[in-house]
Amino acid sequence: MDPRNSAQDVIRCDLCETPVPPLYCEICHINLCKVCVGEHLLDESKLHIVVPFKHRQSIPSYPKCQEHATKLCELHCEQCDIPVCVQCVSSKKHKAHDVEDILSYLESRNKALQADLEELGKLIYPKYQEIASSFLAQRAELQRNTEELISAVNKRGDDWHRDIDTIIKKLKSDIEETESEHLAFLKKQEDEINQTILEITHNIGELKKLLDSNDIYLLSTYKSKNAEFSKMPPKFIFTLPSFSSQRIDTEQLLRQFGSLTARSKYSI
Fold this sequence. Notes:
268 residues, mainly alpha, three-stranded antiparallel β-sheet, 7 helices, rod-shaped, disordered N terminus
């Protein structure tokens, strides 16, 4: 035999042509050496099933009959869905059943399995991978949305706190201004009363001196001030301010503060 021709018959890696590759991809139907198998598996566009080359799918042989040890099952019973031998078919158990050549049956089954494998690897599996990869993006979007909502609520709260602080500051200022006005008025009245008391005290002293002197001239010039002092100053009654508050309506506050839209629903 020509060595060149025999060399061409050697099985080679379909990616780099390394001779006698030890691996085989059941999905892509290609031979793989140990160096190329890693690169092949990195292709995530489909599911790969890599098996040792000697375990790749091959043409099956006839199985032995479980009922007749010396016979091979060359047929398949459609009703019982089991391999049967010729002697089984002639028996009472399978006599009226439909049978087909077992190799034809295995070939059709292998085609069905291969079709399932192809569908899983090329269609179903990539879709699940796509869904799985979307979870990371959804988590990021959820976190971003949460941060934006919390930021909006905090800003709204800060705005309300500023408004409330402004209201409180204005009320305190009004209270202090009212107090200052009342204190100023009281001080004015107090000063006037104290001045009158000094005048009355002085007048009492002068009257005592006059009585003790028995001076006719001075007694004749005395003018009474009792009528003037008897005119008591009016008594002022303050109407002090008071603070009244309304019951806090929590539901109304919530409506004014703001609320979330309807909670998100899960859709499939």
